[in-house]
Amino acid sequence: MTQLNTAALSALGNDIAVPAYDRTAVSPGIVHFGVGGFHRAHQAMYLDSLMNDGKALDWGIVGVGVLPHDKRMADVLSAQDHLYTLVIKHPDGTLEPRVIGSIVDYLFAPDSAEAVLERLVDPATRIVSLTITEGGYHVNQVTGELDTSDAGLAADLEPGATPGSAFGFVVEALARRRAAGIPPFTVMSCDNIPGNGHVAKKMLAAFARLKDADLASHLENEVRFPNCMVDRITPVTTDGDRSALSSTFGVEDGWPVVCEPFTQWVLEDDFGGERPAYEEVGVQIVDDVEPYELMKLRLLNASHQALCYLGYLSGYRYAHEVSQDKLFIDFLLGYMTDEGSPTLPPVPGVDLDRYRHQLIERFANPEVKDTLARLCAESSDRIPKWLVPVIREQLAAGREIKRSALVVASWARYAEGVDEQGAPIEVVDRLRDKLVERAQLNRSDPLAFISDPDLFGDLAADERFVAQYTAALQSLHEIGARRTVESL
C-alpha cells in the first residue's frame, strides 16, 4: 500500500493518473470556502486539468473551512500534502482514479482566522469561490432578503468581532483590501441557486450594510459576482470507496472523492480581473447562464426530489434503484416533460429531450450508489428553490401540476419520520423540528405542512394546488407511495 502524499506520486504506477506539473511551482490565486466532495470533483478538477497542460500555475486553491466538522478535512488534506484521489465510477463498474493537486493549502478558520484574512487580502488572491450549500446564503425564502437570525452572522456583526462565517471573512477582507488600496477579488458562487452570483452579491451587500454602508456600496459597485451552473453527481464518500481504492490501486487516501463520468460547468464571463482559462478544459463561458441553470435546477435537481421521497417510501435506498424501475422512469420523464420543461426559456445548444433521457441514464448508474437519504436531506433549502417556482409558473399558465403536487406531498409524508413499514426515518434538515412537528399533523390537518409561508408562500391558498396536494397526501397514507405513482 502507498500512503498518498507528494513523495508517493512517483510510485503509483501506470494505473492511476497523477499531476503532470511540479506542484512546488504552483502559487495560490483562489481561496475557496466549502471544500467538500463536489468542489473537489468539479472546480478543483478543472483547474488541475489546466495545470496538467502547463497553465494556470498561479491559480492554486487555498481551501477554508469555517464549520467545526471541517477540522477533519483540514487534518486529512494536511497529512496528504493536500493531494486527494478523484475516482470516476463508470456504469460498467470501471473505476478511473486520478490524483488532484490543485489545492495547495487548507486553513481551518476557527484556529487561524487571521491567517485566513491575510490570504484573502493578499493581492495574489483574485477569486474567492464558494460551495457553502443553498442554506449558506441566509436567504429568507419568502421575502428574498437576508435572514439575520443565524447565530454565526449575528456574532460577526458584533463590533470588533473576529470573523467566523464565510460572509464575515469575505466582507472583512474586502474592507481591508479597500483600505489598503488593493483591488477587490471576484466572488464566484458555485452553489445550486438560481442566479447564484446575483444572490451572493445581494446577501453579502445586505450583510455588509449592517456593518458599514460605504463598504456595502463599494461591494455593490466594484466587486464582480459571475453566475454559473455546475453539475456532477458526487455522492458521499464511504468506507467501501476507500477500501476499493486501496485494494484495487494500492493507494491509501483518507478522503477520496467519487463521482459520475458526466461533468458540466457553465460560467458567466464577468470577472473583475484575471481568471483561469477555464474554456480550454471544457467549461462553457457564456454571456447568460440563466437558461442553463434553470434547466439544471428544474430538471436534474427537482427530479432528484421527485425520486428521493417516493423512492424511499417505496422501499428503495439508492437513486439508481429508483431510476431503473420503469414506473419511476415514466414518472420522472413525465414530470420533466410536462411540468419542468414548459417553465424553461430556450437553452442554446441543448436538445431538451436528449437531456431528459440522459438524466435518467445518469441517475441509473449503479456504481455511483447515490443514497436517497442524501437527496432527501436539507429539503427546506431545495424544494422552495427548485420545485415551488415550477408549481407557481405552471399554475399561472393553467398547466399540469399533478406530479409536482405529489412530490411536495411525498416530502410531507417523509417528514413524518416513519416509513410505510413503521421503521423510523432520520429527517436531516436545518428546520427538522419544525418540519416534523407540522408533518405530524398531516392526517388531522392536511394543510399543516404547506401552510408554512417561509417555505411555500401562499400556495396553501391556491385551490387547484391544494386539491391536488391533499389528494396525493391522502393517497400516500391510504395506499402507499408505489401504488400512488401507479394510480397517477
From TrEMBL:
The lineage of its organism: Bacteria, Bacillati, Actinomycetota, Actinomycetes, Propionibacteriales. Keywords: NAD, Oxidoreductase. GO terms for molecular function: mannitol-1-phosphate 5-dehydrogenase activity. It catalyses: D-mannitol 1-phosphate + NAD(+) = beta-D-fructose 6-phosphate + NADH + H(+). Signal peptide: none annotated. InterPro entries: 6-PGluconate_DH-like_C_sf, 6PGD_dom2, Mannitol_DH, Mannitol_DH/Oxidoreductase, Mannitol_DH_C, Mannitol_DH_CS, Mannitol_DH_N, NAD(P)-bd_dom_sf. The keyword Magnesium does not apply. The keyword NAD applies. It comes from the Bacteria. Its EC number is 1.1.1.17. This is Mannitol-1-phosphate 5-dehydrogenase. PANTHER family: MANNITOL DEHYDROGENASE 2-RELATED, MANNITOL DEHYDROGENASE DSF1-RELATED. Residues 29-278 form the Mannitol dehydrogenase N-terminal domain. Residues 288-476 form the Mannitol dehydrogenase C-terminal domain. One of its GO terms (biological process) is mannitol metabolic process. Belongs to the mannitol dehydrogenase family. UxuB subfamily.
